[in-house]
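User: Predict structure, ligand DPM.
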Amino acid sequence: MSELASTPLRPSAGAAQPVRIASRKSELALAQTYWVMGQLQAHHPGLPLELHTLSTQGDIILDVALAKIGDKGLFTKELEVSLLNGSSDLAVHSLKDLPTRLPEGLVLGAITQREDPLDALVLREELRGYQLATLPEGTVIGTSSLRRLAQLRHAFPHLQFKDVRGNLNTRLAKLERGEYDGLILAVAGLKRLGKTDRIHEVLDPSVFLYAVGQGSLGLECRQGDERILELIRPLADAEATARCLAERAFLRALEGGCQVPIGVHSQVRGEELHLTGMVADLEGRRLIRDTQTGPTADPEAVGVALAEKLKQQGADEILQEIFARARC
Ligand code: DPM
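Assistant: Predicted complex:
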């Protein structure tokens, strides 16, 4: 785990109130939160920090497919409740788990520098040397992401797919036990847990799009809490913020709240922001994808414009079908 974690927190210099930080308890969530705490300590020496770990619905319900539980804050709601009822001041989330509409009274105070946002293929040891395209017919890949599933079905129809739940270590253990031949996991999570040696193939973003916000952390706090907003400001990363705001605006403009197969790929080239997005049906038969370029200074407009473009090409129809089936 992060060496920052073992840094003893310095006692308060004056009468500063501790910043109470809410986090999930998984090894990955804690690695992320310790990183944030280390950054806060580096920017504000002596600032007292208090860690509050909480379980979310997503940590408790482990036997139901993600898409069936719905995604309205599955991994974030309990942390948000603690902000709203005043028992914590700052919540640290994987940005991709944070819904694009926040509860009244809460804001995304900062988006941190982005870890690699791409997805990776992790295989059973015996399959070393294979890639998605060359895996034998019927190889079983575990994922509970509709986005990953639709893109895999579209590009690699020779593979089979099976739902997998649980945190990263649980998933890797299921792979060891032979319940799956392979898994698709975020490079960011594997990096943060020091498991990049498990990666067999990093999926090319020109073919396989990642999730909105993947690899960034979202720091959420109460609206108007100027002290916290000021303290977390140095943790905000300008490029990651522009990219993630564009991606989130794209997703917000497209979806009605359900989990849908939507992916993105973004790049900042100076003053220009390039955003590619895709919407697919669950079977991966129809996959609509396009790119929009616009000013980095107005990232949300780029996201909204791209959503409009995809809607004109039939994305709306696909989403309506998915919403109707999920009844949400
Ligand atoms: C969300 C999805 C998944 C997580 C859906 C998606 C993956 C679920 C699965 C919204 N949250 O990506 O299309 O594959 O069965 C999650 C992970 C991380 C944050 C794990 C992972 C780490 C990466 C990051 C689960 N949330 O995707 O491998 O911090 O961005």
